[in-house]
Amino acid sequence: MRIAIVTSGRFHVCDLARELDAKGHDVLFYSLVPLARTSSFGLPERCHRSLGAPLSALQALAQSTSRLQLRAFVNRMVTVALDRHAARVVEACDVFIGMSGLCCASLESIRRRCGARTVLERGSRHILSQKALLEAIPGLAASGVPDWAVSRELKGYALADRIVVPAKHVEASFVERGVPAQKLFRNPYGVDLQMFPPTPAPPRDAPPTIMMVGAWSLRKGCDVLVAAWRRMRTPGTRLLHVGRVLDAPLPSAADFEHHDPVDQRELTAWYERAHVMALASREEGLALVQAQALASGLHLVATDRTGAEDLQECIEDASAVSITPADDVAAFAAALDAQLESARRQRGARDLLGPARQRLTWAAYGARYDSMLRGWLHTPNGDRDAPRHERCAGQAALG
Asked: Model-level pTM?
């Protein structure tokens, strides 16, 4: 199949492009990401298409400014301009895959020009669910989801033939708002196992350590994480954070350590220092750092709005993952204590996945996607329904 993928940044769809290319499809990846960057993640040069340096400069301006109003204005301008530009330049294809919120004009254009089947990639919950959850967080309403973004998301949902989501809670949020179940395809993201091999367990005398990777923010429940950490029964537990600092204050305690963002390839050295990964997010689709941590041998404590439940299905030992309700400090603290107790018994190379490792690969993710596309496009007549989702369990052979 000829497949066009349109995005602004790399996200998970660069990995998707690489895997679909490996399956023999003719894939073109349209983005603002430089060729050197996509190539470093294994995407062949023949797949790369640039959507323009001027738009890249505007996107960089939006990301660098601290003024929320200016950032929102520039983001909207870049989104509309990128979509319109893609509508003109995307080549004829059988399948068009676009990021939700970005692809509206481009989706309509490619369907009109060549009758392509259209797929929308949505990494987070239904936009109305996401908006409600974010605006319920004290202090976050001012930086919630703007009306123009809601309008574009809803238009994309209506236009697309398929909507691909990464997790059960995301899928449920669409069904709850009237999107037909047969329009959805659930496919959990993968992880680069070469980049994230099993790590050696910390020394026996190392302090019990939990870590969080990602933006330190209210959306990711950092206030809940800190409150739970302070309620833990395990004495001397350290909290390690790697990532940007946004709208939540950092603890000033001596047993808290913060480090600015590092390149993905450097994270393994940080995972080596920890016993448990913690993610108390109030709203998130499927956080990729969870799969990285599990592949590295860390136990996981996360809320039911992080995609952890889907990853739990993909691993051999489900007890290494604890899932709690969002905003439940007591439950999160208890889960951290329990997982720390288990994780600190690990010795040598920490391999939680065992023979299930291949279920978490990007190759397995791509194989599930490929199977969905082939089944959908090759079914004669009618709606050509695809399966709603592909469970990781039993998918080892796909890797």
From this structure: 0.88
